[in-house]
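Subject: V-type proton ATPase subunit a structure
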Amino acid sequence: MSLFRSEQMEFYNLVIPRESAWDVMNTLGYFDSVHIIDYDSTLPQINRPFSNYVKRCDDVLQKIGQIDGEMSNFKIDKIYCPDVIDLLEKRNGGHKQFEELEQEVCKVADDLEHQQQTLNSLQEKKNTIRENLEVLRNAVAFQNEDSEEASLLGFQKMVGVIQKEDELRFKRIIFRITKGNIHVEMMDIQEHFIQQDKRTVQKCVFMLFYPCGDLTQKKIQRVIESFSCNRFDIPISPEQHAQRINQLENQLTEADQLLHLTIAQMNKRLQGLAEVKHNCSWIEEVRILATKEKYLYMNLNMLNMTNSVFHGQIWLPQGQDQKIQQALRNLHGNDKQLPSGQIQECQTQLTPPTYYKLNTFTYPFQEIVNTYGIPRYKEINPGLSTIITFPFLVGVMFGDVGHGLLLFVCGLYLTSEDARKSVFAGLVPMRYMILLIGFFATYNGLIYNDFLSMGLNLFGSCYQLVDGEYQLQQDCVYKFGIDPAWGSSANQLTFMNSFKMKLAVIIGVIHMTFGIILKGFNTLHFNNYIDFFCEFIPQFLLMICSFGYMDFLLFLKWSTKFEDTKDAPSVITTMIDMVLKPFDIPEKPLFESGEQQRSIQLLLLTIIIFCVPVMLITKPLIFSLSKKNNQYQQIPSQNPDDDANHEQLQNDMQKDQSQQQSRVSIQQHHEHDDISELIVHQSIETIEFVLGSVSNTASYLRLWALSLAHSQLAEVFFSMTIAGHVGQGGFFGTIGSIVQFPGFALATFGVLMCMDLMECFLHALRLQWVEFQSKFYKADGYLFKAYSFKNIKNKEKED
């Protein structure tokens, strides 16, 4: 089972001649099974052999992005590639294909850039003509008696156009530099202007009257230049004025025609780029090809080049070497002049990567585990059990038949094709998790007998109402869940509190014990028998003899019938007396006799006390004894022969090889070499487990707290909205229920289905990561990152 433990990995040396480097890497890219190790992760990309090629790919991708931006501006839809691998197989044209692609993209980008510059210049020309035209049309309004008097008095005037948003700032600056010796007239232009950056702005015409003087005129001109304003001259005679307006109108018409013609040409060119050639638009096709080329060279840079030969190390899942070797032989067979690459299996001390075969169902659950940490190689993967335990824990806290069914229906909708095109597309990867959470929430809601804060009488109550009091029928057991009669009892809240609290503790102990058992399987798999006997066995016994015994008492108490509930012993009191009064006979025993219960509890307490020093000192003691024995090794011969020299030479060669491999930046697992370090580590582990057993068990009480909060909130929303109208019945009750139902639905959806569900999700994450995985999970591995063209994502998926 690939999800239970990581796939078996094999270490290979990869040797590729420089002449066939591109072809070999291109062949390996179609396999989803090659993990390339970077020979020197500290080496900058710029110092690697193919850094120039990577930069060229980046430049091409940048130009493709510019073309894509122009298509978005013209609102041209693209056809995305449904199958990237199929496209790459059809367009597999060799390493020279990129040069043709680069030239084609650069030519298209340059043409579009030239057309865009032409379009911008035409738009700027059109705006200038319009501004001049607006100035002349509004000049009549400025030519009043005041302006004529100003001309007679020797005042000069200056006319131009400024943006409306700069009007106040322009007036203020002009007033300050002229010390108030200026008259400003403004008139808004109603029609907006289109800028080069596609923004629409409003402008206004200004006319300035100021005293004659070169200094003042130069100041005003500098201010106008700082605001990027256009200045215009006004003809003196009415005939010149009318003639100028007529010329500008003709120029505006010509500029408008040229502008529309240029836009039509650009639109036609961009429409051609959106046409489908293979299985997607040209723009998307070249983007995928350029991305593939960059991806290939970046992985080729991870190999070490010496004397025109690339050397590298790779990891392969077991059984994949034959396929890759056959593909390399086929590559050489297709072109006899092309030297082929080779892979050679070898031994290494490096830790293999962790690799699981995931699908759409297991992916979200594995992501929950990977967020905490990557599983160590061949360590038991918590992701397998998370498929059941995580949705179940959320369901325990979110237990309600109505809310669970609603969540289940949402999960079913997310599995449909329509959900991928809706606003809920972001939740589609979580569809199976939501489906399971809805299922377990419904299941736990049936156990709680809670449907939107109301009980369901599905199998008939075991209680009968006699003289206003409920009486239990003889030998009657409700078939599944809580009897609906408890919903009408006075101590309903107290009963459900007690039940959910005990249920939370039982689930927590089972969950943590399961984690400890997985630790035992890990120690046996790695042949670590010291940890098996010195850690797993004591931890398992301590958990079973303490909190496992407490769960046993809970089941025993539930299965025992007491004539008077006051005679029922308290489990908490029993556990406290077990530690503080171990030799006293319990006053209210749960067993047949108090003496028998005392003997069993003494035995359990002895085991618990014995387990603590075993965890604390046994492992350091064994380590100390083994270290002493290693000091008495056989003394080597003082007259070494040729065989000894040959063996020494082999050891030196292996040492050099290990030093070369040590450059590879992979996280290694180191054992404790110092006895003092091991003592400190073991002391921390023991204290953490003993105290953590108590705190982690108490942490599972969040299952009870959030379940109680969920049911009480549902009851409050129901009672504050439609409960009174439903009980009233009749015409007015129906009308009142219809009026109040939107408020009930909004409160249920916003608070319970959204906020409370998210809260339950986060608390379940805490239980999964801290309380469960800490019992066995090391989480110090690293992922298997396959060199595969499948990693080239579709642009539609990225968006």
